[in-house]
Amino acid sequence: MELTPVTQLTWIDYLVMALYFAVVLGIGFVLRRSTKTSSDFFQSGRSLPPWVTGLAFLSANLGAQEVIGMGASGAKYGIATAHFYWIGAIPAMVFVALFMMPFYYGSRARSVPEYLKLRFDEKTRTLNAVSFAAMTIFSSGISMYAMGKLFNLLLGWSFDFSVLVSAVIVLAYVYAGGLTSAIYNEVLQFFMIAFGFAPLVFLGLRSVGGWDGLTAKLTEVAATRGLAAGAYTHAWQGMSSASTNPIGVEWFGLVMGLGFVLSFGYWCTDFLVVQRAMAADSMLAARRTPLIAAVPKMLFPFLVILPGMIALALTSMGGPTGGEGIIPAKLNELGQPLIDGTGRVVLDYDLATPMLLIKLFPEGMLGLGLTALLASFMSGMAGNVTAFNTVWTYDIYQSHIRKNASDAHYLWMGRAATLGGVGLSIAAAYVAGSFNNIMELLQLVFAFVNAPLFATFALGMFWKRSTGHGAFWGLVAGMSGAFLHHGFTLPLGSSAGVKGGYFGLLHTYPSEMAQTFWTAIASFTSCVVVSIVISMVTRPRPESELAGLVYSLTPKPSDGDLAWYQKPWVFGVAVLGATLLLNLIFL
Amino acid sequence: MSGAGGLDLRYPIGGLFAALGVLLVAFGAFTSSNAEMYVKSGGVNINLIWGAVMLVTGLVFIVLARNGSRPR
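The joint structure predicted for all components is written out below.
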């Protein structure tokens, strides 16, 4: 791309970045000495305290889709984007902590696919391991692609340079210190993001006249777009019908699709996050991990969604021509703004947050803000790479290619897989593109792969009658269900192709988000139905083999010796109460 | 608490934040007479203010690590 960069950095900004990367690499270097066994490399020796695993649990998910995508959605949908947190993530995080962690941690499985092997059979594990491994590479590639494109546009860095340098840094610290190194850096990245974005929100709110000023500005914007006055600043207004809210989804699709299927599928079964909790030093610490993560998670909308809303509100204060406010328009091949079917300019929402950073931060702080952004991209990559190398080594290599090798050999394989995973991610980065919102693309992939997973795990953990054949064919049915549903539907205003409709057109959804949520619902339902039917006609495993793997056959973890305020369920209820309160405040 | 590999994570976090804090405070103080530079941030010398916040945060991490208290 031959574009003039939006801004240029000075020595102080580069110094801030350099300091951060020196510490990132230093952590990997120090941990290299103590990474001696495959357990150290893949599981951190199950030795980390809960505050570390908790913040890493949150931070592993803080990739491109979080910081850039949530800012983009904030500008597109307003505070209703917080549903991804307050209906989506938090209830699922409380559920995985209280009900599922006892099986993940207690079964001593080393990965989520390995739990499937213990509970069901080899083929179910392999199906999950292979699809998961492909997904991690895809996600990490998207993260790199988005970063390369963004820094090219903002600072004029070459795409190849950004992708290569970030890949080498991630490779270096994961290769050296394995999971511990990734987790430690994720915690560091968490603090960088919090401290890079808090002043952005502070300055942003100050420049639009506080929350009241923001509400007033966004009321004007809502009016020009034909939406209810409070559409951008109230999370639940207009949710009774798909046509009266900016997301284009009615409450049932939102609660079932996003809240139940997608979020539980992600937070409860995605090895990327569960791996962090499995590295905790005790069962209690593992159960506390998602709960500790939930506390900052429920406040994150204020850090990542508000910048997008503020960027949109700066509209009426005048800005560059072609776009709205400080959000530029998407350009076609000729460099002219794209116009959609209704004659409106298509905005490049992914630039909302980065443009706000550049607009509000003077040199110095700009270095810090951009470093926080880099940190978020790299934590997304590193999280995927560590999940990939573990699943590859334990669930594919050890179980199919080389069964009884020495521990040193598997440690070697883990490092080799790290190298291979980073290489494949770079390849994926060059393949990525075509969607106008990174998060929606990721949600679509998760809908195909993850949505049936929660059904399989829930049946496996809570119904002792479910069988390996049932689980396997249920997963196949769930993925096919997602594929079929997506192939027969389209979001409004799109043509058949990557957005769906490739088998024909049976239904049109008011938005891409609505289609994604209903794809997840279709997938979940087909998985449950097929799993139950096949389980009923196949032979279950004897109960004696299922102790520690199924709820009704496992002794409950005893919290008897803990004071009431230390019990995980009390913590969980408090988190849910606070989330309910947030929903009520922004009703 | 030493955590995995004998590295207490609070040291690198504290060290980085303290260093960034010192850097931003110094830069903020040095540029405080440059009103033009801070037009962007609405007249607030955000380098000075936020540098101070980061410095204090960094020191808190280091003190916690030195006292060996283990956060829950």
